[in-house]
Structures are given as structure tokens and as C-alpha cells.
């Protein structure tokens, strides 16, 4: 096991002789034994980052360290990393036993030791009964276990998982997520997982590195990125259903600052924690998670009256949707069971402590945006 450190790592491709920055000055420090998720939309640079760590892509500039070793110029086989591919990449003619033991045989390790190692890792991943089978006879979940076993048998300092669950269906995906988390607890190996699924990242990782267009947006624990997103992109990317984000303008009424939507459908007092940041007449991007809005009967400074557009009863929760305008819908998630229909009047209360305000131009949370000026 070892720390994994990326210092100002950049990757530039050339398309029609023009440079395209896939990864821009990425700095990360993954602690010894930590489980880190690289999360972001397709094309954001997360898989390119993983491939640079693995040695499958050259680094344009910057440095990568595993422990105290600079690995930029090391061949992939000399980096002591394990890599589980998205598409499994198993050898079809070989049995599961021979697939797992392939790398050990390439290193001329004695057959007796190979057998011991294979059975040990097979027991850990609960695939002992699959050892005599060939990949074609396996399910997607079984193939992924074999894929991970082949990576782990090398006893790597760093384990790299490239979208390991993307080809699995819902139930198998959930089961494998639990198994990977349990496996990490057992082996305690520094692990990096690449995923575009924020639920996967939240469930598995100790810390999440959120990347967009090659730039690291935020690196923190699941709770940190969920509760304190640094910008609008992170706020909208993390959470299911996603955070409600829409335009508001600050107005003064009776000496008190209010936020109101552009069509005045919603209006409420500016929360105390934002008073010193908000200026009258300025426009902002307002954010609040669906779970931080409650259905209420009493009026107060953070209550709004509106009408139901869509109501969904999902059994364990209710979802209420309010159309603000042609482009924006306000969603509410409640564990209480309600019964509404289209056009019903409703009172909603926004939790003032859970409101987020972002700068319209930069997308930064306004407290952070002002600190940077």
C-alpha cells in the first residue's frame, strides 16, 4: 500500500493539429489505504487520468508518485498497480483459474505458490466454484469478480477500477457495489475508481474528486461535496433527484432583503447567513435540494404558496413538482405520504440553513466567489 500523489498533471491531445487539454493541472493526494472516486460526466478527463496513473497514457507535464517513487517513466508492469477494466478483458480460451494466474505465470512464479494465491483470492471474492469455468459461461457480475481478482493477485500498491459496474444491470450493480466496499475493507489497498455515477461514488468512496472539462472542481468526503458544494456544477451533479437551481433577484421590501424568481411566482426572505453577501438588484443562482423543502400549513418568512404541477407517490416517498416557468421545475421529496393532484394549492417551506447561492457569471458559491476576489 502507498500514497498516490498527482502534481500539476496535464494531458494534451492534438486534434487537427490543434491542442486539446483533456486534463488541466490536476493535483490530488490519495492517502495510504484510501478509497477515492474520480467522478464526472463523459469526456471530463477522469478515465484519461486513470490511464496516466496506470502508464497507458503518456503524461504531457506534471508528476505522479506512488509512495516516494516517481512513476512517470516507469513501464506499466513496473508500477505495481492493479487495473480492472470496464469491459473485463478476460482471455476467452482460458479458465477462470488460468485467467487469474496469468500474470503470476508470466513472472515465472512457482506453480505451487500460484495455486495457493489463486485459491486465496478466489475465496476472498467468492468465486472458488467458478475456477474451472470459462468466461463465456459467466454472468456479468461473475466476470467482474474475476476481473478484480486478476488485478488483486498482483498484490498492488494501488488498485485502479475503470467503470467496473457500468455494464451490470440494477440489482447486480447494487450487489457488486456492496461487495467492492467490503473487499476494500478486507484488503485495505489504496483504490481509485472512475465512475460517472454519483450514487456509486457516494456509496463507495472515502473522498470524491469531481472533475469537469479536465479541471478538478472539488475534492472532499461524500458529505462535504453534498452539503457544501463549491460551485453550481458540483451542486447540480451530486444528488438524486438533483438540486433545484434557478434564477432569483434580490429586492428590498419594507427594509428587508428578499429573493424572488423573475416571474415573481416565488418570494422569500434572504437567509441571515447570506445578508452580507447579497446586494439589492443583483441576480443570483439559487439552489436547494428537494429533501430540504417541506410541505407545511403555517406561514413564515421562508414559506411560499404555489400549485402542484405533477405528483408522484413512490411508496416510500412522495415527489411533488412545481413548474416555475418554461425552463425550470421545482422538485420536492418528502417521506410523509401526501395525496395531491394537478392544480392543488400547496405551501412549501425552504430550510434557510440548506439554501445555496451561486454567482451567475462564475458559478461559484457566493461566499467562495467573494473570498477569491
Automatic annotation (TrEMBL):
Top-level taxon in the UniProt lineage: Bacteria
A Pfam entry, by short name: ABC_tran
Q: Per UniProt, which keywords does this protein have?
A: ATP-binding, Nucleotide-binding, Transport
Its GO CC terms are: ATP-binding cassette (ABC) transporter complex, substrate-binding subunit-containing
Biological process according to GO: carbohydrate transport
Enumerate the spans annotated as ABC transporter domain. 4-238
Q: Which GO terms describe its molecular function?
A: ABC-type transporter activity; ATP binding; ATP hydrolysis activity
What PANTHER family does UniProt report for this protein, alphabetically? MALTODEXTRIN IMPORT ATP-BINDING PROTEIN MSMX, OSMOPROTECTIVE COMPOUNDS UPTAKE ATP-BINDING PROTEIN GGTA
In its UniProt entry, what is this protein called? Answer: Carbohydrate ABC transporter ATP-binding protein, CUT1 family
Protein's organism? Parageobacillus thermantarcticus
Amino acid at each position: 500500500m502507498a500514497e498516490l500523489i498527482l502534481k500539476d498533471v496535464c494531458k494534451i491531445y492534438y486534434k487537427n493539429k490543434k491542442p486539446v487539454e483533456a486534463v488541466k493541472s490536476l493535483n490530488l493526494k490519495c492517502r495510504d489505504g484510501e478509497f477515492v472516486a474520480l467522478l464526472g460526466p463523459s469526456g471530463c478527463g477522469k478515465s484519461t487520468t486513470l490511464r496516466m496513473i496506470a502508464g497507458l497514457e503518456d503524461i504531457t507535464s506534471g508528476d505522479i508518485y506512488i509512495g516516494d517513487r516517481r512513476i512517470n517513466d516507469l513501464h506499466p508492469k513496473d508500477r505495481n498497480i492493479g487495473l480492472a477494466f470496464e469491459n473485463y478483458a478476460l482471455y476467452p480460451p482460458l479458465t477462470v483459474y488460468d485467467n487469474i494466474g496469468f500474470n503470476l505465470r508470466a513472472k515465472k512464479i512457482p506453480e505451487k505458490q500460484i495455486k495457493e494465491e489463486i485459491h486465496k483470492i478466489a475465496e476472498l471474492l467468492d468465486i472458488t466454484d467458478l475456477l474451472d469455468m470459462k468466461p463465456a459461461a459467466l454472468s456479468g457480475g461473475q466476470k467482474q469478480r474475476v476481473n478484480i481478482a486478476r488485478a488483486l493477485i498482483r498484490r498492488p500498491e494501488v488498485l485502479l477500477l475503470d467503470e467496473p459496474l457500468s455494464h451490470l444491470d440494477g440489482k447486480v450493480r447494487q450487489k457488486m457495489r456492496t461487495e467492492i466496499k467490503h473487499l476494500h475493507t478486507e484488503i485495505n489497498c489504496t483504490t481509485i475508481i472512475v465512475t460517472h455515477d454519483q450514487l456509486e461514488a457516494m456509496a463507495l468512496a472515502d473522498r470524491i474528486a469531481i472533475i469537469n472539462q479536465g479541471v478538478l472542481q472539488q475534492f472532499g468526503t461524500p458529505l462535504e461535496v453534498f452539503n457544501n458544494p463549491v460551485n453550481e456544477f458540483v451542486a447540480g451533479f451530486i444528488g438524486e433527484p438533483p438540486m433545484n437551481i434557478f434564477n432569483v433577484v434580490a429586492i428590498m421590501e419594507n427594509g428587508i432583503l428578499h429573493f424572488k424568481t423573475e416571474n415573481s411566482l416565488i418570494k422569500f426572505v434572504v437567509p441571515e447567513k447570506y445578508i452580507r453577501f447579497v446586494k439589492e438588484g443583483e441576480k443570483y443562482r439559487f439552489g436547494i435540494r428537494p429533501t430540504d423543502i417541506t410541505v407545511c400549513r403555517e406561514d413564515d418568512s421562508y414559506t411560499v404558496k404555489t400549485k402542484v404541477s405533477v405528483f408522484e407517490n413512490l411508496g416510500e416517498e412522495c415527489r411533488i413538482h412545481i413548474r416555475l416557468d418554461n425552463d425550470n421545475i421545482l422538485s420536492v421529496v418528502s417521506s410523509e405520504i401526501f395525496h395531491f393532484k394537478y392544480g392543488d394549492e400547496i405551501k412549501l417551506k425552504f430550510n434557510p440553513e440548506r439554501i445555496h447561492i451561486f454567482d451567475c457569471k462564475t458559478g461559484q458559491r457566493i461566499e467562495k466567489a467573494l473570498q477569491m476576489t
